[in-house]
Amino acid sequence: MKMTPEELFDSFKPDLGDGDRYVEELSKKLRSYEMLHKICEENARKSKTALLAAVLVGLLLGGFIMAVVLLSPTSVMDFHFKLGVRVLHFSIRYATIALLLPAAVPVCLFISLLLREQN
């Protein structure tokens, strides 16, 4: 005999036993859920803070290294590689892109994580 969903729900009569005990156990489960929810929120907040700190430290260190490299005298940076003029022109032209691209990846990752958490 096949029953429709309405008949299944109508025929379901759970034995709740003592009403006070049921409410007490339900309250205990709700408190456990609330505590778990608070722990999860705290862990998410800590991970966001750690990620933000890592991004900021990375950007500051990257900016410091870029400043040292760009502000140092050219005699210090003269490595005497036997490279053609075209290779040097290419490397100088795209050095900024090559240095900014790895710095942009953590920023994009951080923004995507923040947007994912908001949804």
Give a verbal description of the structure.
This protein is mostly helical. 79% of the residues lie in helices and 0% in strands. The protein has one domain. It has helices at residues 5-11, 19-71, 85-118.
What is the topology?
Elements: H1 5-11, H2 19-71, H3 85-118
Helix pairs in contact: 2-3
Strand content: under 5%
Integer-rounded radius of gyration: 31 Å
Overall number of domains: 1
Largest sheet: none
- What number is the mean pLDDT? 76
Structure summary, number of beta strands: 0
Cα shape: elongated
Question: Termini separation (Å)?
Answer: 45 Å
Question: Concise description?
Answer:
The chain is an all-alpha fold. The protein is 79% helix and 0% strand.
Features:
0% strand; 3 helices; 79% helix; single chain; 119 residues; mainly alpha
